[in-house]
């Protein structure tokens, strides 16, 4: 089994803050696998008006939230390079910028600029100017030339790759992360299709990116993974100080690099955006999507994971897939590793997963959102909801989530006390804490904004309540997280989290602007036949 526990989102994204190539088409959708109706109807994106499910949704207020969120992103961005800092504190002054950025942060600023344009916060000319400035800087930044992939950390004021941390002086060994570059690549493809003036520069960067650089296709008998192949966590292009967990090799030619022995192996994960990009460009086969676990097996020799799943096996692209799901509050849900909104919904900002794959994501996304809401309001009794990795109100950074929605037995937990839900594993392992009493729950606004793409009214009410009840809002929009019982607020803005806010609002208020930019007809023709045939085990229990 691949050890996911050694890596997490912020290993690649904010460690210092808490620091279409032409190919044969993929197979057509078989007649026997016609789209399956979702058992939970997800509301349509808003198109100039509000449907019955969104009557408590105040468009003007959401636009105001977007304007303030954009202010924080502008404050984070160096006007000479067009690169956003990783984070900034509430004062929004130049001196409060973090001093470093990542490919994910740069991608987030790019798609946020498109949303700001569509909302009328900036003119089309200003938007194009901002995009070109950032992309020209990106073009001259040091990167791994054989793959076209960027390193993990750069100075936002100069664009230089960092070799030491700005605050501590600790050594940084450049690392090319599959997740980090995935979000940058998604942004580049979106800009390429959505802004004519910046398209040349976006294409230049996107077209040289080799997603197969991260794809272990099992061609090396000494480093075999699951049938169908998996995505590496990434690679070190230079020698480094990491003891173990890597091997010398290359999937795209050039000098060998140090590839991680860690691979992403669950489908409810942010790394599926990297798989999507590989499928879209023809660099990764569609079967790789089905190599990832939906859940781990239900047998007793796998009883270490969170709970015993239910489901059946099906075959896609010649691979046997166990369509397992976890049972929670009358729902069957395909879990992520930690049970966070980011894992579930971030790729959905770009790909209309619920529409293209109604039998899988069309079931799971609404149920995941409902489960997060019910956990916060009913099970834990916090009064608020939205759980995802964020700033820790007590300091630093931490993964938060709904434990029951994650495979990780140690959990991404929803409160400061680390209350661990343990329902046991059928007859294999007894329950130790099936009905926990929760403490100081931590909610992060970006999770509720992501949920707005599926429950607009409920998400709006939740966010309005957070703004009303806590000192959780400033000139730059919502602060990153709130511990709701103590009222402790993390009074800073993270550029990726603010970009998730902008992306979700853009999809809800601007006719799916981010999805329209990314999910073109060409993209749909390649990706939809792959993901659209699947039926998850998700649904009513």
UniProtKB/TrEMBL annotation:
It comes from the Bacteria. Residues 65-217 form the DUF3131 domain. Transmembrane segments: none annotated. Pfam families: DUF3131, Glycoamylase. Keywords: Signal. Residues 321-518 form the Glycoamylase-like domain. This is DUF3131 domain-containing protein. It comes from Microbacterium aurugineum.
């Amino acid at each position: 089994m691949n050890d996911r526990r050694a890596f997490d989102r912020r290993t690649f994204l904010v460690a210092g803050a808490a620091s279409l190539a032409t190919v044969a088409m993929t197979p057509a959708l078989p007649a026997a696998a016609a789209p399956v109706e979702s058992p939970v109807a997800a509301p349509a994106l808003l198109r100039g008006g509000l449907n019955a499910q969104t009557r408590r949704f105040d468009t003007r207020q959401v636009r105001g939230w977007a304007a303030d969120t954009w202010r924080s992103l502008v404050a984070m961005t160096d006007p000479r390079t067009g690169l956003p800092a990783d984070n900034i504190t509430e004062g929004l002054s130049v001196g409060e910028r973090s001093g470093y950025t990542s490919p994910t942060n740069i991608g987030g600023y790019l798609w946020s600029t498109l949303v700001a344009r569509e909302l009328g916060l900036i003119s089309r000319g200003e938007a194009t100017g901002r995009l070109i400035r950032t992309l020209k800087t990106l073009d001259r930044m040091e990167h791994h030339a054989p793959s076209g992939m960027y390193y993990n950390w750069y100075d936002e004021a100069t664009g230089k790759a960092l070799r030491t941390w700005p605050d501590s002086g600790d050594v940084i060994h450049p690392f090319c992360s599959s997740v980090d570059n995935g979000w940058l690549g998604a942004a580049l493809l979106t800009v390429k299709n959505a802004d004519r003036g910046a398209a040349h520069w976006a294409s230049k960067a996107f077209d040289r990116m080799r997603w197969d650089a991260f794809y272990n296709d099992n061609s090396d008998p000494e480093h075999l993974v699951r049938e169908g192949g998996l995505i590496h966590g990434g690679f070190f292009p230079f020698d480094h100080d990491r003891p173990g967990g890597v091997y010398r090799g290359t999937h795209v030619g050039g000098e060998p690099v140090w590839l991680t022995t860690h691979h992403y192996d669950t489908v409810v994960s942010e790394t599926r955006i990297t798989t999507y990009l590989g499928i879209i460009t023809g660099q990764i086969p569609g079967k790789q999507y089905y190599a990832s676990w939906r859940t781990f097996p239900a047998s007793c020799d796998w009883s270490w994971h969170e709970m015993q799943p239910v489901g059946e096996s099906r075959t896609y692209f010649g691979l046997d897939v166990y369509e397992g799901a976890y049972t929670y509050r009358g729902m069957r849900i395909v879990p992520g590793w930690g049970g966070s909104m980011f894992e579930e919904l971030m790729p959905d900002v770009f790909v209309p997963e619920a529409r293209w794959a109604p039998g899988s994501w069309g079931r799971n996304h609404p149920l995941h959102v409902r489960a997060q809401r019910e956990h916060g309001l009913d099970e834990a009794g916090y009064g608020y909801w939205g759980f995802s990795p964020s700033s820790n109100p007590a300091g630093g950074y931490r993964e938060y989530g709904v434990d029951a929605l994650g495979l990780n037995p140690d959990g991404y937990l929803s409160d400061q006390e680390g209350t661990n839900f343990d329902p046991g594993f059928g007859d294999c392992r007894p329950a130790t804490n099936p009905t926990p009493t929760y403490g100081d729950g931590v909610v992060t606004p970006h999770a509720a904004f992501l949920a707005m793409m599926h429950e607009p009214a409920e998400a709006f009410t939740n966010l309005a309540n957070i703004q009303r009840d806590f000192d959780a809002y400033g000139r730059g929009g919502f602060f990153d997280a709130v511990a709701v019982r103590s009222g402790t607020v993390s009074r800073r803005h993270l550029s990726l989290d603010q970009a998730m806010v902008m992306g979700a609002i853009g999809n809800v208020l601007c006719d799916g602007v981010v999805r329209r930019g990314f999910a073109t007809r060409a993209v749909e023709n390649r990706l939809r036949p792959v993901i659209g045939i699947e039926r998850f085990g998700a649904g009513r229990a």
